[in-house]
Amino acid sequence: MVLGWLAVTPAHALGAAEPGKEPVVDAGACLAASEAHDADKVITECNAVIDNGKAAKSDRINALIARASIFITRGETNRAIADYDIALQLDPALANIFNARGELHRKNGDRPKALADFAAALRLNPEHASARSNYHALALELERLGAQMAVAGRPSFNCATARRAVEKAICADPELANLDREIDASQARIVHAATRPAAIRALQREQDAFIARRNAAFGRPGYDLKRAMQDRLRRLNGADGR
Length: 242
What we know:
The protein is mainly α. It is 68% helix and 0% strand. The chain contains eleven helices and no strands. It has helices at residues 28-35, 39-50, 57-73, 77-90, 95-107, 111-124, 129-151, 165-172, 174-193, 197-217, 225-239. Mean pLDDT is 86; it is low at 1-17.
């Protein structure tokens, strides 16, 4: 994550005014506090720069970035995002800040905004390695989530042809349906990983026995379908350490 990035303008230029004119605000104290990692002083000194309408734009941007870095270390991501918002309003060409804001949006769970920020950073700087890595990682995550949502609440079998009472119960309960699909996927994974035909046959017999017990016991007093399915999934996942 980009924290406290202060490369908008050289340090010696902070607070500089046009030749022949007195500086309207001294931003040097803000920068000094940031370089010293003095959080309280950053807030005080940088606030003065940010709130001064006569401060140079580059000084205000640097102050906003410095203050945002303090908010990030304090876990106040929304306040840091707000500072990055203002910095980008002042200069929409800051690829680093788009990337940094995207990381905060992702941390907050707002994936669409994060992806948009990473994309914006790449448009400004196609060679931005961090933005490229963030963009591709998040795009893959969204793809996986989309695939999971597409099958959420659906079991491994076709509910339209379900005949058994236990199958209809699974189809009617999204949680049971998800468990059934996960059991089927785990079974397929460990069978695929097995190398000996005898081991494959044993795995299939074990799964067939579970289905037979499930079908026979469903509806009987004391039988807990959800618990039985959870136990089966744990057993399958424990078979290969996953």
